[in-house]
Amino acid sequence: MKKRKSDILHYLDLLQKKEIDPNFWVSYPYLNLAGVECFTTDNWTWIEENGTVLFPAIELNQSQKSYPFKSGWADFGNLKFPEGELTFLDYEYLYMPSNFLNMKGKRWTTFRKNSRKWPKRIGGKYCYESTSSNNNELESLLISWLENEKTGVIHDDEVLMKFIFESLPGVRRKSLTADGKLFGINIWDENYKYLNYRVCICDPNEPFLNEFCRLLFYTDPIILNSKKVVNDGGVLDRTGLEKFKDKLNPLRKRTVLSWSQE
Amino acid sequence: MGGKSRKSGGVSKKLIDRIKTGAYSTKEKGTTEIKTNEKKKKRHPSLFGLITEKGN
User: Fold this and answer.
1) Confidence of residue A134 (pLDDT cuts 50, 70, 90)
2) What is the ipTM of this complex?
3) Nearest C-alpha neighbor of A161 from the set A182, A180, A185
4) How far apart are CA A215 and CA A248, in angstroms?
5) CA dihedral in degrees (A129, A211, A244, A25; nearest 10)?
6) Cβ distance A55 to A77 under 8 Å?
7) What's the 3-state SS for chain B?
8) A68: which DSSP letter?
9) Residue B47, exposed/middle/buried by CB under 10 A (0-12, 13-18, 19+)?
10) For chain A, what percent of residues have pLDDT higher than 90?
11) Which of A16, A96, A114, A192 has the fewest CB atoms within 10 Å around its CB?
12) Nearest to B29 among A131, A135, A199 (CB)
């Protein structure tokens, strides 16, 4: 199988053409920042990172050739790996932004109540916009957030830092400030089907601010007008995070699987 | 970030040290210059270096 390097956009185009349901890691900004590579042969195209195939390879023609790999890191919603040993990787939460506008009904009780506490406490005076003051504030916020990380482990930290500190087309950000102080940031990007909610970092010393930051994100006219469903990623083996995301009434909670034939 | 690492994740204490030593400060950041658009309206620079806002 003679492989040649290809453009990541080639893989992304194929996903769209074949209406394949992309997972949380699939966006041009993410794949670029992660430094992964796209390869192709006459029959297949795939994404690779240091020799590991990340997602299901896409068949380019109906050649009926057998699948050329023996493992894969994360499947897609409607494109699975071939038969073999499947292991749980994470969940993947999909949310409908318009559902956050009304939050009617008993199932919304907890989030509806909690998401309104922070703005009420500060008297409703805050600013949520794509501009803010300076990077020292961002660094302070991030340090404060990291200091409060109970597990002490930050998943995908290198890419996370790039999303926060580097500028890249296709990555959008908004910050929450009050009284001239930075309290939180939301960062997202998108693929052909979903908006990917990459980062929600807020001051951990402010109770219920996390809920409010998420409410701001989902009810932002930019998000609502996109008419896209939001992919909010997984739970990183954290029970607390899973309970939190469950209370936001996901449209779908998908199990993401890794695969091995070895 | 809601996505798992493909290798062992970073340690928060080390990340804090890196931030404090300015490891990320060398990246391209937002300018302090106030920009004006064609209608001469002033726009403050983005914290993140790119003004990507299209407007609501």
Assistant:
1) low
2) 0.85
3) A185
4) 10
5) 0
6) no
7) CCCCCCCCCEEHHHHHHHHHCCCCCCCCCCCCCCEECCCCCEECCCCCCCCCCCCC
8) -
9) buried
10) 87
11) A16
12) A135
Tell me whether B40 touches chain A (CB under 8 Å): no
pTM, to two decimals: 0.88
Compute the distance between CA of residue A227 and CA of residue A125 in angstroms, rounded to an integer. Answer: 28
Q: Residues A100-109: contacts with CB within 8 Å, 24+ apart?
A: A100/A215, A100/A218, A100/A219, A101/A219, A101/A224, A107/A249, A108/A249
Q: What are the structure tokens assigned to A46, written together?
A: 């795939």
Cβ distance of B47 and A236 shorter than 8 Å: no
pLDDT greater than 80 at residue A260 = yes
Residue B19 sits at the chain A interface (C-beta within 8 Å)? yes
Number of CB atoms found within 10 A of residue A158's CB: 16
Q: Has residue A189 got a pLDDT over 50? A: yes
Q: How confident is the model at residue A65, as a pLDDT?
A: 76
